[in-house]
Queue: 4 jobs
Job 1
Amino acid sequence: MRNGFRIFTLGIVCTASFIYGCSLGGNPRSASDHLPKNYEKTLDIVRVYYGTDRTPTGERSPNNYYGSEPTALQYGICEVSIPSTHDYGEIERPSIWKLEFSENPERHVMLQSVEALLEDEFLKDLQDEVKYSESEEAFVFVHGYNVSFAHAARRTAQMAHDLKFQGPPIMFSWPSQGKLPGYVADMTSADFAKDHVLEFVEKIARDSGAKKVHLIAHSMGNRIVTDVLKNLSEQSLYRDVPKFNQVILAAPDIDARTFKYEIAPKITQADRVTIYASSNDKALKASQLVHQGRRLGQGGVELTVFPEQKFIDMIDASQVDFGLFELGHASYADGLLVDVQRTLAGAPVVSRGLTAHESQFAWLVPGPLRPVEDLPTGIQMASLETLSPDTVVTKETTKPSPVNGWSWWKIFWPF
């Protein structure tokens, strides 16, 4: 009897999994079929401009429009819907555990449409968007490892929505496999994309009409963006190249020593670089084992500091959920996201409510942050370099989380 019940239960789960998988891929409904009546009242539609060197699959489904094979640089616009029930900092997706077997625009963040454009059409549309925006700024997001085109589009739209960014959100999606075991293949694809990303972001900076262009990279995407910054800085010696405003490197999966001694000293084409690190990022811990070296995005006792590069701010976000750039639930709303918002607004690190790190050359996101205007009058955190001898600064330390052998296997074996 018990065996029969177990088989019956397993059958239900397998059938539900099959239905769930089919509902998100294969041959889903068109974007117009997904949208409810009077959707303008219940959904926020975010237009995301994109560059990619992924090969189109030939499928009509927005979720499967691009695959993981590399090709030439392409341009386009996609639309992502965000429900009115959206939680700050989260990308709501169907969950089999909630008996949700298909996307619902009133409950989930959805990629509604993908439109490939010629370069001239893309730039003309982007110029109009920048011209009529409040800030006349733009950001370009470069995703990391294990990310599909659809995932990247949803993340870019969610970031723009939650950050209340008053300008066009732009992403570059390189041909990641979008699979957990695809790490090595993704490294190859990321290296392949470097020239395309350089060409793309230079076009955005030159031809979009934006007064400020910010670059945001996550995980393996930093491998691309830091190489682009290095190459542009070297090329600035013999040709005119654009300069970017805020550059955010989140959980960078690159060798710490290489960046500190070979890349950071050469960066000239960024007004400010902010690095967010965490001691709780499992992917970076696994990468450290693979590469046998410390990664730039590791925080805590592994934190890398830059006392000689005054334009680089190192932020240890180990005390908050690092979900901003992860695909899945994130409860960081009052911590990391608030600081990213302030960074893009140009607020100096000394005025963002951060705590001085014990290294004296870095900062801690101390958990929930209040808006700067809510802080008591006259009380703000300050850089150790600007403090008077009589000023006392609270220093906090972060303890590395214990990791056992099974934790490493769980990174690669998700079952």
Job 2
Amino acid sequence: MKPTDIAQPDYFHKVVDCQWACPAHTPVPEYIRLIAQGRYDDAYLVNWKSNVFPGILGRTCDRPCEPACRRVRVEEGSPEHRKAHAKPEPVAICRLKRTAADYKSDIRARLPKPAARMNGKRIALVGGGPASLTVARDLAPHGYHCVVFDGDAKAGGMMRTQIPKFRLPDRVIDEECGYILDLGVEFRGGTRVDSMARLLDEGYDAIFVGSGAPRGRDLDIPGRREAAAHIHVGIDWLASVSFGHTTSIGRRVVVLGGGNTAMDCCRSARRLGGEKVDVVVRSGFDEMKASPWEKEDAQHEGIPIHNYLVPKAFLHEQGRLVGITFDKVRALRDATGRRELVPTGEPEVRFDCDDVLVAVGQENSFPWIERGLGIEFDRWGMPVVDRTTLASTRPGVFFGGDAAFGPKKDRKSVV
């Protein structure tokens, strides 16, 4: 038997299952004990140190800590619990994070202060979302002059533009982004970086790219161009709603996709006038990427989820969208467990609709990074980075969050 390796702190993190499951390794038991003692300020600051945005994550995190919670195993092993036929439930770790954020007092006096003396180093951060803001939070107190560039007028990135306000109010984003900007971080809102070469020429000591995965995938099937006026890419549509450009939608809405963006789209459509909103997914219900509670919230609002249907064609009459057809499929797995969706041979399924929201995934987009600068990309168009240091193949240029590893959750961007 090999001796226990305690050289890496991972060994100690794994002792606490929920803490290890959290990508930021937030000390969950510690802040829950503080909440139980009514010490909300202390509980909030424990979170702030490790995950940066407790109020935001307390409303939007997909909670990997909760499936790891030991409370489920305790209840499964309890004769009294089994006798009551109660479903084992984890501790509500995520909602307790929000509790600390909502019940705390003014904690600004306990946060780090702007550096008393600058160290002469200038850092450019592309994108005003959680990845760039986390880097700025960690560097600014040490005297680095951090300059955050973002095309939008306010900081927050896709937390502000793609998460509906009924889930994440602007006041929460303003507060927690403000804690970081108040550290002396320079925020250049409304300034889109469209050339890495020009940014390099400005002489920054380092550049961090935290621009996220800003491009939504489209669906190229028959009828897409003819009915384009009423077919919307999900994340773009959510941004339009967030900025107040879109204030209504058709009475009958179909949402394509099974992730959390699709759940945000369908619930937003309901609030904007959609009387009949249907979510259609090509996979099975349990295989959907959306968090279980996101699916439950949609269903509680009377939004049905239809599974194993693959989009076939948009139907249109005189340039007006009237419906969409689907092929019915079933899942087969080969000897290796690889899943394949095969047609069932049943008649196609039709949904009549006035609008379609396409939420079938997101992609990275780096048209502003010129090739030939020493920044290598792989065959999928993703930057080649060191997974530990986040350094690219050009010294002094780093990538983080979705920009480095593809679409994830806010909690991954703060790690």
Job 3
Amino acid sequence: MSKRHSKPTRVSKDEANFGDFIEDKSAENPSDMTSYSLLKDKLDANLAEALGSQPAEGSAMGEELKLAGSLQIKDATGRKHSLELLVGDVTSATADAPVDLLAISAARNDYYPLPGTVIAALQERGVSLRRLADRRACDWRESWQCWISERVRPTTPRIARVLCFEHQGFGAPEELVGNIFRSTSEWLLRQGPGGAMLGTMRIPLLASGYQGRDAAAMLRAIAQQALLHLLGGLPVSKVQIVLRASSPRVLPLCVEFGTLIEEFKHSALHSSRGDSGRESDLFVSYRHSDLPTTNALLQSIHRVRSDLRIWIDREKLSAGCFWKPELLRAIGGARHGLCVVTDTYPDSPECMDEFHAALCCERSRRGYLLPILALSQRTVGSLLQSMRQVQFLATRNHQRGIGALADRIVNAVSSPRQ
């Protein structure tokens, strides 16, 4: 049977900037039912055209990928990224459209190819997840419930690597799915600011098959985390979320994605109207439980130079705002990022997000990152590789010379921006 190939149909194409976040200043609040109804009508029409050739039932294997929606994003360094919603076979990849990293989910150490799963679809294409698990390139399952494979062999389909998300026993996947992006950031940034930029990262609705999680909740969680990490400089050009065309919920899920994008644009627009840290000299990233250590350092810095404009979330973040974009804007808008790495700093997902974002800024602005090593019990060797490869301004004995450390920070901030 011949297959009709249709041109990919875009539901929307708006550009979100890191500074202003969106160029479309008329973004509406999606809670308004008229806006929601118009969005649904548009999706109905577009999906009817895009999916007209797709079977109502059957295997996901071989389903042609269709573009249902996208959002263009600009990060702190001005680099553009895109978040796309596709419908079809998540394992479909060609020489013209390769996949650099495919994220999938599995039960802990269980890689059996159950029928209808992405693991089975990969197996049909000659890729065994069990064999990939025997030669993991990176393994962060105890901290981030993820591992990344070595390069896939054979090279057909054109999927370079697989990221496996094994959340069971750690918590709800909706709450942990951000770890797939943290793992990706760590993998790409561990070689330092000159590391690689990934082309395409593709993600199905993780944990929504045999694991039984709600598909809409997983779509929302994945899309939200993708948006935030891309805004923070995740070194990935394109993140694709893929739905199965044979799913009876494909239209409501596309509406959910469109509504989320409108929510994001609306929230980002309102939070961007306040002080976003664009004029600060120093953004401070710290673990809130270690506030006394950070306060002692900041007091010393103010004694050296009282006019420094310092952005710290306990002072600047307005209550009730869409907090993460505002925080990321502050990182990108500051002249320098000061990361106070204490014993518990690497254990905080939020702190690691800030560190990764600061490291991404360092890629385009050498001298941006000012990392402080303030360990008391933890060893340097226990830190993540992205942290071990930076040049810290202080050692574990920093408190003996906190005044000298403050001088070094002020000198760095006062020097011309590179």
Job 4
Amino acid sequence: MKAKQSDVFGTGNAGGQTCAPGRAMNRLAKSFALVLLFAGLLLGATNANALVCTSAATGNWNAAATWAAPCNVVGGPVAADTVTIGAAHIVTVTAAAAATSLTVIGALVNNSTLTLSAVLGGGGTLTNAATGILNIGGTSAITTLNASTAGNVVNYTGAGAQTINPTTYATLNFSGAGVKTNSGIVTVNTALTGTALTNSATGTLNIGGTSTITTLTATAVGNIVNYTGAGQTVKATSYDTLNVTGTATNSGTVTVATALGGAGTLTNAATGILNIGGTSLITGLTATAIGNVVNYTGAGQTVKATSYATLNVTGTATNSGTVTVATALGGAGTLTNAATGILNIGGTSLITALTATAFGNIVNYTGAGQTVKATSYDTLNVTGTATNSGTVTVATALGGAGTLTNAATGILNIGG
């Protein structure tokens, strides 16, 4: 009998056959080759996805001749690459392109979709043309960003906090979880859209078109929001300073803490609630729509001389002009009718305190079936029908073409 044979590779003869040493060597070589191939592919893929690309000439992004090696291939830089455009070069994006980081020292013109995941910087100029869509996922500290051409869109898409480049945009959109903040002067001509924007204390936000953004935070003391267009709808939110230089309408709840101003006209629609906590020097305030409410909520305020449906004073306020209230004068505060004040009340007058004693001021009750506020007046006129059920004192003149009824509980003191 022959003894069992065994080779140096540990192959035995359990099955009655012997595995040749050459076959085992082939298997080992093939395995080693596969490992090397995989490593090479992995290394190559890593290099291909993380190249440092520098422009070599003026040209299109996707043209090989535009880039120095190793990026001088058809298609140009890709999403994971770091890209620099040299001072003497103008690169034009004509088809969808992407990069992790883009530093523009010369110039770039985007006519397609350009997506930047981490950095947009450099002392040069990026122009987002009419057909351009620019997606910024990280910082945007480039010196000059031209994005005002009608039709172009700039999207801030970062998952982390982003600071908005202070420039003029046609359409400015926000997405991603990160907080987007404006700390400079940002102008939006066409549309402000997307998730959320915070206007910081140093931020000035000029809105010339629509403002359908989901959340606009504009409460920081010192920040300013200007509505500069025609036929705009004011975003229903809280503002520190709100200016209207064109024409705008509020159909929700708008609160203004410090100043309501501008040379334009704000219309408080039927569903509008306008809370004014500071000054109200706006040129035009239209608040006559039935159902709308204007609340003066601060201390030492001056009521805008205009016509109101419902006017409430919850702090202290003064009228020095002509104020007309059609439906209701209310609130837990005090309204003072100054010497030059004319106050026309067409509905109820349930305000907690009405001070109307200053010589020269006039209070007119102009409605039907009214109840006169029990207080002291300088001049009191009734042009419709009204009843006094409390104590009313008139220092200078009781007049009007209407009828005043002194009810059973009424005390009427006439001094003039």
